[in-house]
Design goal:
The protein is 78% helix and 0% strand. Helix 1 (2-11) runs antiparallel to helix 3 (31-51) and helix 1 (2-11) runs parallel beside helix 4 (57-78). The protein starts with a helix and ends with a helix. It has one domain (2-78). The chain is mainly α. The chain contains four helices and no strands. The chain has helices at residues 2-11, 19-27, 31-51, 57-78.
Length: 79
């Protein structure tokens, strides 16, 4: 959902606020790639956290992403 809302805002001309995604967008020809690669890296990091026993970290990250997606959806709905 985060990827879709980010692409929606980029399509509407909104500037990306995340500096890491901003760098990826500046260096990539395709916004889907620029947004997708960091998501793949996040999945890899989550997998490493899971298998290294840092399972308490994952729910916190999930809550953060849920809040961000809810914010993006509310902003998209508002206009």
């Amino acid at each position: 959902m985060d990827t879709l809302t980010t692409l929606l805002f980029l399509h509407r001309g909104v500037h990306e606020a995340n500096p890491l995604i901003g760098v990826a967008l500046a260096t990539s020809a395709d916004p889907r790639t620029a947004v997708g690669i960091p998501k793949v890296l996040a999945i890899v990091l989550a997998t490493v956290a899971w298998y290294s026993g840092r399972k308490r970290l994952l729910p916190k990250v999930n809550v953060l992403y849920s809040v961000l997606v809810a914010w993006n959806l509310a902003a998209a709905w508002a206009g």
